[in-house]
């Protein structure tokens, strides 16, 4: 059977690498966080080469975003869609303000 690979958040990787950059040794990092030193050295190298972007998990397929649909819209339709979204959000905000006022009167 294969090993189960752990994945670490970008925030965790950044935190641990910053501890190392502030003077913690490899062994202190290993003992404190239980990390494999080869993996951690790779994080440090990537962080030094590319900053925070280097610590991002780049395995697997890139995630698709909804902005691809936005790119296909003609500029006029894009503006209309954004204006409608703004109006909706304004109405939602007013409705929530009204709920708060009613909640205080009780």
Structure description:
The protein is mainly alpha-helical and 106 residues long. The protein has two domains: 10-55; 67-105. 67% of the residues lie in helices and 0% in strands. The chain has helices at residues 10-21, 26-33, 37-50, 67-72, 75-105. The longest helix has 31 residues, at 75-105. The mean pLDDT is 83.
Query: Number of DSSP helices?
Result: 5
In total, the number of strands is 0
Question: Major sheet, described briefly?
Answer: none
- Compressed to H and E, one letter per element, the order equals HHHHH
Task: Work out the helicity level.
Answer: 55-70%
What is the C-alpha radius of gyration, as a whole number of Å? 24 Å
Average pLDDT level: 83
pLDDT below 50 for ≥5 consecutive residues: which ranges? none
N-to-C terminal Cα separation, in Å?
A: 62 Å
Describe this protein with a few key phrases.
106 residues
Question: What's the short story on this structure?
Answer:
Helices cover 67% and strands 0% of the residues. The protein has helices at 10-21, 26-33, 37-50, 67-72, 75-105.
Task: Give the SSE map.
Layout: H1 10-21, H2 26-33, H3 37-50, H4 67-72, H5 75-105
Helix pairs in contact: 1-3
């Amino acid at each position: 059977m294969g090993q189960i690979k752990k994945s670490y958040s970008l925030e965790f990787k950044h935190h641990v690498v910053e501890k190392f950059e502030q003077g913690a040794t490899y062994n202190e990092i290993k003992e404190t966080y239980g990390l494999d030193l080869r993996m951690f050295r790779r994080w440090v190298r990537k962080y030094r080469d590319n900053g925070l972007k280097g610590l991002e998990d780049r395995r697997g397929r890139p995630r698709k975003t909804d902005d691809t649909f936005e790119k296909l819209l003609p500029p006029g339709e894009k503006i209309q869609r954004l204006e409608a979204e703004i109006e909706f959000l304004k109405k939602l905000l007013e409705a929530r303000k009204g709920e708060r006022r009613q909640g205080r009167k009780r």
